[in-house]
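Lecture notes, part 5. Sequence design as translation. It can be helpful to think of inverse folding as translation between two languages: the language of shapes and the language of residues. The source text, in structure tokens, appears below.
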């Protein structure tokens, strides 16, 4: 009942309202942050710029099986555009932080390209719990928000500031669907289907797949 595009755009607008971040330009982490970044720019009046270019021939990094492969994939996948970010206070928008390693590399990349400040804005609340319903996020121990506070995550990724969309802001971004009918378990640990003890204590996100074998 809700267009994903419209919801993402509203999430970007809510991010601008909540974070009150000021900067010279808004950029997105392509492609995951694109729509929210345009919503942020629309709401704040800060111009949207292409600050990162994506190599479209490389797969998604967090799906790569090892950290080493993920590191290489990030380097091959994204490039900062120095002409766009040099000397600028940059507001960078993405849709989520899973492990935090990719975000950290992108912040470094932007600084190397000459960005004066990097403020990171995430269009979801922190992901502190695994998804058991099919979204390939991570097991709990690998989720950065499972063990770190927002300030600790900011330090880890090396951004000047960091804001996550609140759960209320996420719900308010749904204008034509009923937000009370949605799952938010990876943000608030309220799984709509009861989790078995083995799942919760073992933090084993593959429990359903293993049972099906
Ligand atoms: S909101 Fe629910 S279904 Fe969606 S990724 Fe999170 S836990 Fe999985």
């Amino acid at each position: 009942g809700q267009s994903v595009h419209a919801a993402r755009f509203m999430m970007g607008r809510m991010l601008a309202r909540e974070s009150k971040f000021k900067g010279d330009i808004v950029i997105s982490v392509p492609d995951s942050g694109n729509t929210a970044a345009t919503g942020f720019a629309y709401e704040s009046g800060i111009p949207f710029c292409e600050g990162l270019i994506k190599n479209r021939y490389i797969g998604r990094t967090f799906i790569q099986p090892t950290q080493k492969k993920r590191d290489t994939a990030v380097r091959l996948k994204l490039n900062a555009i120095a002409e766009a970010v040099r000397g600028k206070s940059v507001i960078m928008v993405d849709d989520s932080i899973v492990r935090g390693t990719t975000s950290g590399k992108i912040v470094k990349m932007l600084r190397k390209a000459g960005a004066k400040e990097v403020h990171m804005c995430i269009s979801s609340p922190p992901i502190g719990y695994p998804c058991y319903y099919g979204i390939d996020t991570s097991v709990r121990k690998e989720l950065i928000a499972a063990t770190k506070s927002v300030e600790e995550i900011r330090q880890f990724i090396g951004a000047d500031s960091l804001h996550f969309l609140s759960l209320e802001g996420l719900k308010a971004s749904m204008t034509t669907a009923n937000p009370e009918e949605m799952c938010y378990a990876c943000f608030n640990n309220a799984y709509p289907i009861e989790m078995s003890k083995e799942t919760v204590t073992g933090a084993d996100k593959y429990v359903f797949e293993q049972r099906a074998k």
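The translated text above is only one of many valid answers, since several sequences can fold into similar shapes. The two ends are 34 Å apart (CA to CA).
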